[in-house]
Amino acid sequence: MTAATPATPRAATTAPGPKGVPLLGSLGSWRRNTAEFLLGLQRDYGEVVRMRLGPMTVHQVTGPEAVHQVLVKNHGNYVRGPLYEQFGVVMGKGLLTSDGEYWRGHRRAVQPAFQKNAVLGIVPNIVRATEEMLDEWDGKAARGEPVDLMTEMLRLTLVTLSRSLFAYDIKPSSRVLKQIVDDVVEVMFRRGTASEMLPSWLPTDRKRKIDRIHHVFDKVVADVRETYARTGDGSLTSLMEQAVDPVTGEPWTDQEIRDELLTIYLAGHETTAVSLCWTLLSIANHPPVQEELGGEIDRVLGGGPPDAENTDALTYTKMVVDESLRMHPPIWIFPRAAVGPDTLGGYDIEAGSSVLVSPLVSHHNPRYWDNPLAFDPYRFTPQAVRERPRMAYFPFGAGPRQCIGNSMALLELRTIVAMINQRFRISMIPGHALQYGSPVISLRPLRDVMVRLASRDRTHGRGSAGPAAVPAPAEGPAPSGCPYTGTPDA
Ligand code: HEM
């Protein structure tokens, strides 16, 4: 038997990437158009790219094997890190911002509210809230009034979430909350401004906004808890009120309950609203998709409302939603900090550096997505899904930190998309080009998205199927090209 040759230390391999400029690195390109910059990195340097953003060394990781290693296989090595700290300003220490044993205990405590049967039980809430909105839309359609789609979707998802998980009817204040959610996004993402360096007692605009956010949300939290104390209703409130710390056996403190409640409200409704907005616009701009969708909705629902059983049979609707989440994943980048060293895609990742995972960039990787800028729901037939690596597509993340609300979100998306398309045709109002905003919490359109509604009742008769149900093409020119880069649509 020959003695084993001692392993020669492997030479450090640094991932390729842009040089950037002294001190700032690639911060300028990042700030100019983050999505375009990150997509360009994958195109020019590959699936693991190294860059400097000011003082930070950051690796963008987009290949399925490497993403799997970060989110699943070696997830313990990748914690939330400094880039998540800003979230804490508003949300405090909740599921989204915490790590380790604290996070594990909290996730376990609230998980039952998100299990399959519990989630299916919310269908009546989704249907009721959507019907209330559509009844208002009847009047708007008749009057030819434009509709601000993003605001409507934010209101709908907020009402649905609040009723479903907290048995609390937030409707009366939801318009105020929309403004507050905008403030939240701004406060969490506009950092490093001169106002932050001023003494904390000075009433700057940012501080005023933070105070307003806390004031409004603390009232919501108090109302939710009061509702539970009075009625005992609310699946998630009940889990939180009865949760105990696994080490001390003590009930959750008021602060713990407040932070988790806020986390669920904020993480749960804006993302779903953004996705609804993109899905409805994609349908509006692709008449053949609209036609096929209308046919399925009529066949499966027969003019009635969706329920827990028939939503499962809306297979094409599901493919449309999946494709929309591919092209427009609401949470489009999420950062991690490497605790120890690792190797990703053959390249060294040093301890303390940051790793950026981006569903948006991975979902446009031409190695797995032919013609990635084209909207094609047939990428999501069961066979096509089986043939792709699992981690080529991850709008909800993966591994232990995967989105806790993913089944709820998918059910909401499918149900609401079906109900809206059952009653209305949506078309964009000319002049409202779709463009992504700066790197904000979610992949929101830059400006308000104003749309016009045409009642399917009056145009073609509700419940009619087949080609007669095809709407007039979108009013005005359909937005063309890639909203991230401005390149022509394929
Ligand atoms: C289309 C809708 C949604 C999308 C695209 C989405 C996406 C995501 C993603 C990508 C993550 C993982 C982030 C990371 O790993 O750093 C996440 C986490 C999370 N999401 Fe969602 N989400 C959606 C809807 C919801 C809903 C409906 C809820 C709750 C009602 C929710 C609650 C959460 C929470 C609490 C976390 C943190 C989970 C943890 O770390 O344990 N999300 N979401």
Walkthrough of the structure:
The protein is α+β, with helices and mostly antiparallel strands and 490 residues long. The chain has 18 helices and 10 strands. Helix content is 47%, strand content 9%. The strands form 3 sheets. A 5-stranded mixed β-sheet has the order 1-2-8-5-3. A 3-stranded antiparallel β-sheet has the order 4-10-9. A two-stranded antiparallel ribbon has the order 6-7. Strand 6 (342-344) and strand 7 form a beta hairpin. It is globular and about 65 Å long. The relative contact order is 0.16. Protoporphyrin IX containing FE is lined by residues 95-96, 107, 161, 263-264, 267-268, 271-272, 275, 330-331, 334, 395-397, 401, 403-405, 408-409.
Q: What is the CATH homology-level superfamily of the domain at 87-332 and 401-469?
A: Cytochrome P450
Please give the number of β-strands. Answer: 10
* Structural class by SSE content: alpha+beta
> Tell me, what is the CATH class of the domain at 87-332 and 401-469?
Mainly Alpha
Give the cofactors and ligands.
protoporphyrin IX containing FE
Describe the strand arrangement of the main beta sheet, using strand numbers: 1-2-8-5-3
Q: Can you tell me the CATH topology of the domain at 87-332 and 401-469?
A: Cytochrome p450
Q: Give the SSE order as H and E letters.
A: HHEEHEHHHHEHHHHHHHEEEEHHHEEH
Helix content: 40-55%
Q: What share of residues are in beta strands?
A: 5-15%
Mean pLDDT: 85
Total count of helical runs of at least 4 residues:
18
- Give me the Rg, rounded: 23 Å
Shape: globular
**CATH architectural type of the domain at 87-332 and 401-469:** Orthogonal Bundle
Reported for the largest beta sheet, the result is: 5 strands, mixed
What is the distance, rounded to the nearest whole angstrom, between the alpha carbons of the first and last residues? 61 Å
